[in-house]
């Protein structure tokens, strides 16, 4: 048997990248600039909003231009979903059923949805499913795994994909239950390690924050313009919002990672990167305040 995977392109419309570009240029970037220049609240809110907007703009740009390379690969051992930054591998031994279904994505319960890019946990017209698709409705391939999980994908040619994966049906029962359990434990272990890493990062930030806090004068700069010059000053007690509300970051990360990260390592890495970068922005904000004090 050849080791080269059989590749199936995802359904793709060239219009999607133009929709993404228009959204970035007309909405995302102007709103980001306006917020950066007008926010006069505690530094926490300015840093958080700017971080979120940068992340949104980056993801919009990436996914808008990468949907054309989304694909599904059938190797000798598993089905690989290559979906932008998200990559999921499904061992054939976990597949209980494969079918073509006329699906419509009704409500996104968790994940992301852009023109030509739909990923996450969705309520559909048939059943709830984890979706890795480039269309909202139409012919989908729906896989039912051994634990009842439903996965919906949108190959360009669903009939050809169904025939190809059915031909690998004899591989569906090739591994033992022990091997499958070990794979699931490995993914769960990655999720626990990520949650621990993000939590430790936040604790380290708290240590740095309070070490700096006691050394600051009572009145400090709290907002900066594009030129790096402080344009608002206030009592340093406002910085306590950074430490207090900032705890939301590792908490949200832990909830999302432990609930949804068990399905794929890509999500674990993506969430970890987002939250660690957010903490790094807070550290930089504190550094700017110290430098200007």
If you had to describe this structure to a student in words, what would you say it looks like?
By secondary structure, the protein is α+β, with helices and mostly antiparallel strands. The chain folds into two domains: 1-174, no CATH class; 180-292, no CATH class. Helix content is 48%, strand content 27%. It has helices spanning 15-38, 43-66, 158-166, 177-213, 240-245, 248-260, 265-292, and strands at 6-9, 71-74, 78-83, 86-91, 95-114, 117-124, 128-133, 137-145, 150-153, 219-224, 230-235. The strands form three sheets. The protein has a five-stranded mixed β-barrel. The chain has a four-stranded antiparallel β-sheet with strand order 1-2-3-4. The chain has a two-stranded antiparallel sheet with strand order 10-11. Helix 2 (43-66) packs antiparallel against helix 7, helix 4 (177-213) packs antiparallel against helix 6 (248-260) and helix 6 runs antiparallel to helix 7 (265-292). The longest helix has 37 residues, at 177-213. It is elongated and about 70 Å long. The termini are far apart.
Q: Which value, in Å, is the CA radius of gyration?
A: 23 Å
The biggest beta sheet reads: 5 strands, mixed, barrel
| Helix/strand class | alpha+beta
- Form type: elongated
Distance between the termini: 67 Å
Give, in order, the helices and strands: EHHEEEEEEEEHHEEHHH
The share of residues in helices is 40-55%
Mean pLDDT: 76
- Which consecutive residue ranges, at least 5 long each, have pLDDT under 50? none
Q: Strand order of the main beta sheet, please?
A: 5-6-7-9-8
Beta-strand proportion: 25-35%
How many independent structural domains? 2
Give the total of beta strands: 11
Query: So how many helices?
Result: 7
């Amino acid at each position: 048997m050849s080791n080269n995977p059989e590749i199936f392109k995802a359904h793709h419309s060239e219009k999607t990248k133009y929709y993404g570009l228009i959204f970035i240029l007309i909405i995302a970037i102007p709103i980001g600039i306006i917020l950066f220049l007008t926010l006069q609240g505690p530094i926490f809110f300015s840093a958080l909003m700017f971080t979120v907007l940068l992340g949104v703009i980056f993801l919009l740009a990436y996914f808008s231009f990468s949907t054309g390379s989304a694909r599904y690969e059938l190797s000798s051992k598993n089905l690989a979903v290559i979906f932008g930054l998200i990559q999921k591998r499904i061992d054939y031994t976990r597949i209980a059923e494969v079918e073509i279904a006329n699906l419509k994505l009704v409500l996104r319960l968790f994940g992301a949805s852009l023109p030509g890019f739909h990923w996450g946990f969705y309520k559909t017209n048939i059943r709830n499913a984890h979706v890795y698709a480039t269309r909202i409705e139409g012919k989908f391939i729906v896989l039912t795994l051994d634990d009842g999980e439903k996965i919906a994908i949108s190959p360009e040619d669903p009939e050809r994909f169904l025939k190809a994966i059915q031909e690998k049906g004899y591989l569906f029962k090739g591994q033992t239950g022990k091997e499958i359990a070990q794979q699931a434990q490995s993914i769960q272990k990655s999720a626990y390690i990520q949650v621990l890493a993000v939590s430790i990062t936040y604790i380290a930030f708290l240590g740095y924050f309070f070490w700096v806090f006691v050394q600051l004068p009572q009145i400090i700069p709290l907002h900066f313009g594009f030129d790096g010059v402080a344009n608002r000053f206030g009592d340093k007690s406002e910085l306590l919002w950074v430490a207090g509300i900032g705890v939301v970051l590792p908490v949200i990360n832990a909830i999302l990672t432990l609930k949804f990260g068990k399905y794929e390592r890509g999500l674990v890495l993506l969430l970890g990167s987002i939250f660690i970068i957010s903490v790094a922005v807070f550290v930089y904000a504190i550094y700017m305040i110290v430098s200007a004090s």
